[in-house]
Each structure stands twice: as structure tokens, then as C-alpha cells.
């Protein structure tokens, strides 16, 4: 995937200019960080030609976990849709990374466990899985363990497994006894006999589950492109909420899942949590900084407002865009 992205980087830099007098749409490469319902909005905006409507020729590329932010920092892609923790960690490390929108603002993962596990205490001393260290799944797992009074380092062994499919496969094989996954993988896990020990969405935690991330430089030099992308993404959010059948079909296409029940469960798990005005929220950033401060001293001094740029959403709000879309 990285090779593919790098091969297209030159095309990107030559084509990133805005729509020309000849009517050609601006080419834009966008990385999404997981194959799950948290990324469905981008898929829908692509499949419904909403990006094209806003003058953007968008190619969506999958690169899991923190590697999505690596592609952003490396200049391969100017916009990524990713869990907030990896973007926040990158900025703490000096990266020119900024969050411009929150699509989902609470933890939308589940801790799925082997059938014999009844409580968190049953997992003590056992092996747990997240996608990658520093990723959204890793953050969510450690947050929940600490919330319930456990030490993620001393009480468990946490492995970085890979994507959600790999985490589910490890659960099924018994290589781990618990793992953090999201729909549609959770529905498949239940079908295989795994138990949902904790549905993290019910915890009501302010958390940047899915964010739109760019660099300050790109936002400064290509603000209109970011505005167009955000308008298209929000229209994708509206289509996601209002058109259940279309959304289910798109989720099936990108996840390669054929089970109607699994696809319906995926849609139902995410549609209620879509933010109608996707302003980045300082409280969500604070949640991540507090968690990171246990291992990264820089996070203790971090100010939530330094990790977000609310100006894009604010500009769209001033022009009445959200009111028109959601009326």
C-alpha cells in the first residue's frame, strides 16, 4: 500500500490545485485508517459521487492504524481520517498535524473476549490485543482497563495484532483472550461464539473516535480544498444517516461482508452517533492527553486547543451549511 501511495505522490502534487477553467476536478488522495463502520462516511461520499459534486477527484486508500498519520507526515497524502490518538501523538512528537473535524466523538469499540471469560478479573494475567500501540484501539483498551481499576501494563499482556480481521482471527485461534474491535467485526465475533464484555459506546466518554486530520501547512496553503472536502464529508454523513439501504450496500462493498445481519448491525451501531456539526471538541482531546500522560511527559503539558483547528467547521457554520444539509 505504501508503495502504491508513493508512486502516486507526484501525481498528487501536480494535481492538487483547485478546479481549473477546463472543469477538471482537483485530485486528492485520502487515507482511511480502518475497515469498519467508523470509516463508512468517506466510502459513502465516494460512492455517491459527493466528492465529485464538490470539485474533488478523491482516491480513498486504506492504511491501518498509526501508519495513516505516517503517510500524512511523509507528504504522501494531505488528508487522513483516523482515530484521534495517533494524530495527537504525532503532534506531541513535533509533527505538523492538526485535527479539523470530529465525525464520531465517543468510543465506538467493544472488548470482545473468549466465551469462558465472564469479567475483567478473569482476564488478569491473560493476553489482550489491539491493532497497534498508540492506535485508537490501543488507547481504548488501556483506558477501559484503567477505568475499572486495573493496570494495563502489570495486569495484562497487550499485543499489537494488526487490523480488526487479524484481531478477530487471533481471538478465534486462542492466541489472545480479549481484543478491541468494532462493527462489523463485533457481529462476526458474536457469530463465532465470542462474548462482548464491554460495549464502550455505553460509557459516554468524550473521545475523538474518527477525525479528519491534515497538516497546518496544507490547511494554510489549500484551505478551499479542505473546505470542499469537509462539505462533501458532511453530505456523506447526511446520506449515511438518511439512506440506510444505500449505506448498508456501501459498507458491504468496502468490508467484503455478505451477511445482511452483520451489515445491518454495523449500520445500527454507528448511525446514532454521527455528529451533525463535526466541530473538534477540546474535551475529547483532553481525554487522550490524560491517558497519554502516563507514558509521555509531553502530554501533561499539552493544551487540548493546540491539537485542533475549529476554523473550517466554524466557517461552514457561519455560511449556514449545516442548517441547509440537516434541515
Protein architecture, described:
The protein has 327 residues and is an alpha/beta fold. It has two domains: 2-107 and 206-326, D-Maltodextrin-Binding Protein, domain 2 (3-Layer(aba) Sandwich), CATH 3.40.190; 110-203, Periplasmic binding protein-like II (D-Maltodextrin-Binding Protein, domain 2, 3-Layer(aba) Sandwich). Helix content is 45%, strand content 18%. The protein has a five-stranded mixed sheet, with helices on both faces. Strand 6, helix 7 and strand 7 form a beta-alpha-beta unit. Helix 8 packs parallel to helix 9. It is globular and about 55 Å long.
Short account of what is shown:
The protein is α/β, with parallel strands linked by helices and 327 residues long.
Number of strands: 10
Major sheet details: 5 strands, mixed
| Basic shape | globular
- CATH class (first level) name of the largest domain: Alpha Beta
The domain count comes to: 2
Q: Termini separation (Å)?
A: 40 Å
What is the radius of gyration?
Answer: 19 Å
Secondary-structure element string: HHEHHEHEHEEEHEHEHEEHHHHHHHH
User: What does the average pLDDT come to?
Assistant: 89
Unreliable segments (pLDDT under 50, ≥5 consecutive)?
A: 1-23
Contiguous helical run count: 17
Might you state the CATH topology name of the largest domain?
Answer: D-Maltodextrin-Binding Protein, domain 2
Strand order in the largest sheet: 2-1-3-10-4
The chain-level structural class is alpha/beta
Give the CATH architecture of the largest domain: 3-Layer(aba) Sandwich
Which percent range describes the beta-strand content? 15-25%
Helical residues, percent = 40-55%
